[in-house]
Every structure is written in C-alpha cells, then in structure tokens.
Amino acid sequence: MEKYIIIIDQGTTSTRAILFDLKGNIIFTSQKEVKCYYPFPGAVEQDALEIFLSVNDTISEIMVKKNLAPNQIISIGITNQRETTIVFDKNGEPLGKAIVWQSKQSQAICESLEDKKDFIFQKTGLILNPYFSASKIRYLLDHIENGQERAQKGEILFGTVDTFLLYRLTNGKSFKTDYTNASRTLLFNIFEKKWDEDLLKLFNIPSIMLPEVCDSASNFGYSNILSSQYKVLISSLIGDQQSSLIGQACFKEGDIKNTYGTGCFILTNLGEKAKLFSNGLLTTIAYGINGKVTYALEGSVLIGGASIQWLRDKLELIKNAAESEEAVNKAEDEVYVVPAFVGLGTPYWDNNCRGAIFNLTRNSSKYSLIKATLESIAFQSKDVIETIKKETKLKFKSLRVDGGASNNNYLMQFQSDILNMKLQKGKIFETTSLGAFYLCMLNLKKFHSIEEIIKFHQIKQIFVPNMSKEERKNKYKKWKLAVKATRIF
Ligand code: ADP
What we know:
Layout: E1 4-10, E2 14-21, E3 26-33, E4 45-46, H1 48-65, E5 73-80, E6 86-89, E7 98-99, H2 107-111, H3 117-124, H4 133-142, H5 147-152, E8 156-159, H6 161-169, E9 176-178, H7 179-182, E10 188-189, E11 194-195, H8 197-203, E12 212-214, E13 217-227, E14 230-239, H9 240-247, E15 256-260, E16 264-271, E17 282-289, E18 292-301, H10 306-313, H11 323-327, E19 336-338, E20 356-358, H12 366-392, E21 398-402, H13 409-419, E22 422-426, H14 431-443, H15 450-456, E23 459-463, H16 469-488
Parallel strand pairs: 1-5, 5-14, 9-12, 15-21, 21-22
Antiparallel strand pairs: 1-2, 2-3, 4-7, 6-8, 10-11, 13-14, 15-16, 16-18, 17-18, 19-20, 22-23
Helix pairs in contact: 1-6, 9-14, 12-13
The structure holds adenosine-5'-diphosphate (ADP).
C-alpha cells in the first residue's frame, strides 16, 4: 500500500490539508474557509475551536475522498499563520477568541512599553508592535476572569496556532512549539534560544504557560486523529513564511524568496549566526534542524495582492485577479499608485500615511490604474530588497518567488526588470506546504540531509531582466518620489 504524508497549512483565511506522496507529488488538497471576526475597530479575531475543526474536516475529507487506510499516512506536518495567539485550559478548551496577527487591540499595551523598544529589539530581533504575540497574551489574560492568577497556577496555557493544534491533536499530551513560531512571540531570545525572563517580566507573563521549544523537524507527538487504533506521528511545526523559505530550498546564506500573497513577505537566509540590522528589517529564526538554528532576515510589504482585490472589489475594474494581466497592454501612460491603505511596511514602518495616485493625464484609463497597481507590488518589494542589500551587503543571484500573485507573468517580468535580477519559480507551487513536507521527510529519515532537498528542488519558470538601466533608474526614481509625496500628505 502506498504511503503518504499530510501537511496542514493553517492560514488566516483558510485551512488546507494537502496529501503528498513520498516522491513529493501533491495528490489531493482539501480546503475550508476560516471566519474572521471584527468585534470593534482594529480588532481581528478567530474562533480557535473552529480552526481545529477545520483541520479535522480537511483531514477527514482527504481520507474519505482518496479512500485511504489510516496507516497509509506515515506522518502529519503543520505550517501555520504566525503570531496569532490562543490561550486555553488544560483540556484544550480555548479561553476567549484567538487574536489574529493583524489585530491592533493590544496597541495600548505596546505603547505603555515604548521606552523598552530597543531592549526588546536587542533580544528578539523584532519591533515592539501589537502584531506579535506578547501583548496579545497580556490582553487575553487581562480579559479572562482571574486570568493572571489562573495562569500563574498553571491552569492557562498559551500557544500560537501550531501549539494549540498539536495540543488538541495529541489530546493534551504534547505542549510544544518550534523555534520559528517561538521567535515571533516577542518573548523569545533569539540569541540564547530560550524564553527570555526579562521579557516575561516586562509583559508579566508566567513562564509556566509557555510551550517547550523544539527543532522544526522533531517527533512532536502522536495523534489519534485518523483512527482510535492508529497513532500518527507529527513530524514538523513551522511558521508559514519560514516554511516557504524551506519549500524554496533557501538553505544557503543569501538565498532569498518573496511570497506574493495578500502582503509580500521577503525572507533571506542569514546563516547560523544571529545578526541585527536597522531600517525596519526583522531578524527571526528560519528553522531549527538537527539541533542547529538558522536565522533569516525578514521584510514585508503590507498591501501586495490585496491591492488587486481592491481593484476588483472596491473599484470594480476587474472581475478577477487574473484579468489584471491582460489589462496592462491597454494602458497608454505611466501612472504611479502607492497602495498605502494601512500605512507602509519595510523600510518605512509608517502607520499613518494612506494611499495615493500620481501622474494622471487625459489618457489615464482604468488600464493605467491596473498596470500601476500591479507595478506597485514590484516597487514595494524592491524597496525591501534594496534595504536588505544595503544593510547586509549580501549579493543576490536570483529571487525565488511564490504566492497567488506570482501567477501574474506581467508582474513577475516587471519585478525582474525593476530589480535587475533573475526570478525563479519552483515546480511545486505550494511552497508553504512543501517546506513542512521536506521537514517531515527529514524527521522520518526519508531525506538524510539538506543537500538532498536542494537536489530534489526543481525550477519550473525563470524570468530574466529585460529593461534598460536608464528606464529602470527613471521609473524607480519616480516611485520613490511618489512614496515621499504620499508620506508628506
Ligand atoms: P494569502 O495566502 O495571503 O491568502 P495567496 O498566496 O492565496 O494569498 O494569494 C492571493 C492574493 O494574490 C490575492 O490578494 C490576489 O489578489 C492575488 N492574486 C491572485 N492571482 C493573481 C494574479 N493572477 N494577478 C495578480 N494578483 C493575483
């Protein structure tokens, strides 16, 4: 009987269970939407139980639709939305809602610690921001009856989504996380590779509520999810962006990838020594494999593919995202859109500016707007990559790309042109789940080394720059001016 691995990709908008055979082919995917709740302005929440049930349902669908026996699944791996915070009791019952990474509801807690932001950065590599888990834990404990007291007694546990799912899947037997998820909490010392006493004190979070931190490929525990008679091994836990770094086989220092989803997440492998950089770049843990931790430098674009959703849903200029690609040929002029709908990410980290459009003429049409919006994704990504280049002095050979908007060939060609850099796309498009799959294969000793993964990784498409130096310089100069003007307004 053929054997398989199931990867759970628990994202913000949906949960997917992906069935891989041991040759790395995707055999089947089951997907279920997960609701977001917006109880008051700035707050984004999810129901942790609904997240768990969606995992249960998608796994069941695979087993039924592919008519599989439980023992055909030799392992499960989990990759997940990062930073989202859940507190739960010893029975795995969530206490309150999960606070989603995007949520700003713990902003006041961060503001009260403003004078400690450098202290926090020096230990975690992160900026003091409600985005990360620590202030969300504090917020939840403050909103649960006797929260602090119960947490101190060990009655309340904290987990990012990976930990909560693991706890439920193993009936409370495993209370663990991996280095990548831990490194996004604002409580983890990335240099000492352990929960940081000073940071725990700062946020007044009892250490007893924190999970054990393990390598991303480990024996995390056994689950009865497939049948009461059969225990399946959970072999990997990893945050989604780090998983796609692995799925792109970015194992060498200076390997760099960009995931073009709702936002864009650019990560570059920093090697085994943690280093801090300025200009809004975050140092984070890329993975822990065989007892060794590797670091990554991360920069993000807040509005990437989401700007294409804006064209579709608010301006109603296109019926679907793919239509944007054909539209560019009909544009007659050079418009600049700065989609700062929620401010700007790396390197600006400007929460206050809002979007703007520049350089309109009588010839400006909806097509010009569509083209400019697509190009803004590439310009913003260049802003991040130029910052990484400048700060690290690393030389990049090529950029590995994935995510929904990387399906747009115009965008990818323009990205290659404006960066003057080769772009490459992997054969397996599901790079996020592929990373967690590779980790399972390592843990199961089906792969024996990282070199084996590098050899296994296949490239499907390459984009080569084809724009004159002068045109590139000219366009990027105008983009920078547009950003400057947006921020002044
Ligand atoms: P996420 O994981 O953040 O939900 P995905 O990787 O699924 O994101 O990508 C979805 C995003 O990609 C959406 O914002 C969508 O607008 C954008 N997108 C999808 N296809 C295209 C396309 N062909 N051209 C441009 N943008 C696209």
